[in-house]
Design goal:
The protein is an alpha+beta fold. 30% of the residues lie in helices and 28% in strands. It has helices spanning 93-109, 133-147, 174-177, 206-241, and strands spanning 25-29, 37-43, 46-57, 70-77, 118-128, 157-164, 167-170, 183-189, 194-199. The chain has a 5-stranded mixed β-sheet. A 4-stranded antiparallel β-sheet has the order 7-6-8-9, sandwiched between helices. The mean pLDDT is 90.
């Protein structure tokens, strides 16, 4: 799809958003009683859930670390998550790649040194996909980990951005993500001002990269505010419940 088709002459996107405007985002924590921590998130029409178990004794002693916890992530997409029929909702190459990305992100964010010889399991599933699956998984996993009481250095918030017709767009939908526009997936720890994920498969001019990075960073910061508000509201509800 040509870049001009993604933006109207007035500078609005196909869904009516401004270039720097996030999708409507709805979050909830504690959605599964069986898990140690859980959460759900809706980034527009992209919906994901996450369950966290642990820390617990390492299942695979060969991968156990004497000085830190091992992060085990599993990612899957529901067979009904897209309009295309999926014969292998999990275990395919792309799902394994995304799981490894999540493991690296949260290995950097969790205080794993507090739990030597243990394991933390993070299970994420995309129920409905409309762009930005990886950032949605990062954001929902952050909420689930906090809900599980697992110590982290900071929140982790992710955002997908693209550069279209000399304009950076944030929080992409499927049409925008599947266009030929160069994209960037960014995840940051906002309070520490640290980047934990910088992923692009596009060739970018330096000037373009700087603009795209700045837009993605602002998107991550805006999403972090939503995540923090979600946790604060959940804690307030819990305090009122047990008052």
């Amino acid at each position: 799809m040509a870049g001009l088709e993604l933006l109207s002459p007035e500078g609005l996107r196909l869904d009516g958003r401004k270039p720097n405007e996030l999708k409507q985002t709805v979050c909830k924590v504690g959605v599964f009683d069986e898990a140690d921590g859980s959460a759900s998130i809706e980034h527009g029409n992209t919906k994901a859930i996450c369950s966290v178990y642990g820390p617990h004794e390492s299942v695979n002693r060969g991968k156990s670390r004497h000085d830190k916890a091992v992060i085990n992530c599993q990612y899957s997409m529901a067979t009904f998550s897209t309009t295309e029929r999926r014969s292998k909702p999990k275990g395919d190459r792309r799902s394994i790649e995304i799981a490894l990305i999540l493991e690296k992100v949260f290995d950097a964010a969790i205080l794993t040194n507090l739990y030597p010889r243990s394991q933390i399991d993070i299970y994420v599933q995309v129920l409905q996909s409309d762009g930005g699956n990886i950032p949605a998984c990062i954001n929902v996993a952050t909420l689930a980990l906090i809900n599980a009481g697992i110590p982290m250095k900071d929140y982790v918030s992710g955002c997908l951005a693209a550069f279209v017709d000399d304009t950076p767009l944030v929080d992409l939908n499927t049409l925008e993500e599947n266009s030929n526009a160069p994209t960037l997936i960014l995840a940051i720890q906002p309070n520490l001002d640290q980047v934990v994920l910088f992923l692009t498969e596009s060739r970018l001019h330096l000037d373009t990269l700087e603009k795209l990075l700045e837009a993605a960073r602002r998107g991550c910061t805006d999403i972090a505010v939503i995540l923090q508000r979600t946790i604060k509201e959940a804690l307030t509800e819990q305090a009122v419940k047990f008052a």
